[in-house]
Amino acid sequence: MMTKPGVFYLSILLLFLFHVINTLAQPTAAPVQSTTAPTPPANAPAKPATPPSTPATPPTSLAKPPIQSAKAPSQSVQVPVQKGSIDVTKILAKAHGYSVLIRLLKSTGLAAQLYGQLNNSNNGFTIFAPTDTAFSNLKPGTINSLSDLQKTQLIQFHILNSVIGLSNFQTLSNPVPTEAGDTSAGEFPLNVTTAGNQVNISTGLVNTTMGGTIYMDNHLAIYRVDSVLLPLDIFSPKPKKAAAPKPALTESNTTTAAESPSGGGGGATTASSSTTDTDAAKVNASGAVSLSTNKLLLPIGVVVVAFFVAKGT
After folding, report:
1. Which of 91, 117, 104 is closest to 144 using CA atoms?
2. Which of 93-102, 132-141, 201-210, 239-248 has the lowest mean pLDDT?
3. φ, ψ (nearest 5 deg) of residue 158
4. pTM for this one?
5. 56-90: per-residue pLDDT in tens?
6. Which of 176, 179, 231, 235 has its CA nearest to residue 200?
7. What's the CA gap between 23 and 36, in Å, rounded?
């Protein structure tokens, strides 16, 4: 059996253990710490909030390509690719502002020729199309004063016999051959130069810059020009060289030639004298022969007469 002091000490120990257990079991301090802890997470989302502002910048930069594409139509085709047959006059009519060029293409017969070659062969063409304003800027009566041949050559001067894309003009060799023909100086020379995206055209009389693209496919390219390309052969022809006149014989030359011992006149006089002497010699010789013949016949005749007379007696 336990003594009274042992029971006393055991009771004190149990009370101490009960107090410690109650103290440890109290949960009041923990919730206070848990409520203060969420405040740092409240500040944390503020930091991720700045990155979204950074991604917001790329959409702004991505929005720039549509701005560039908005500028592209200045160099894009004005008339879409045609389905079926290709007709230059119909394409120009859809582009509007090329009625004078259409009229000249039809009146010269070039519209029909282009139609046939574009639809029945593999030939390709590049056309520089002057606007109606370009024709109206010419002096009044310029086109009407041309002959039919000159009108044809004028329009042919605006046509290249191959398809030239915008990026290929810098590869051309000057002078560039056109359907008008001769590219030599003073005839139908056409020079094309490039400066960046700009294409410059010179004829010797006109300097202009190629405008936008009216039409483009594998067989035909049509570009706008704001000036009529005037060829030198038609609007500034070279003066034709007259044949040099033959030098005329002057009186002094004729006299000198006649008096010169070695000249043609002296030779002719000498030849004439020689011919006269020769003829005289022939006459004298024939006369001598005839005289000698007469001298022979006379004695013979006398002898014959004497023979018959003697025989008769």
Report:
1. 104
2. 239-248
3. -95, 5
4. 0.54
5. 444 443 444 333 333 333 457 889 998 889 999 99
6. 176
7. 23
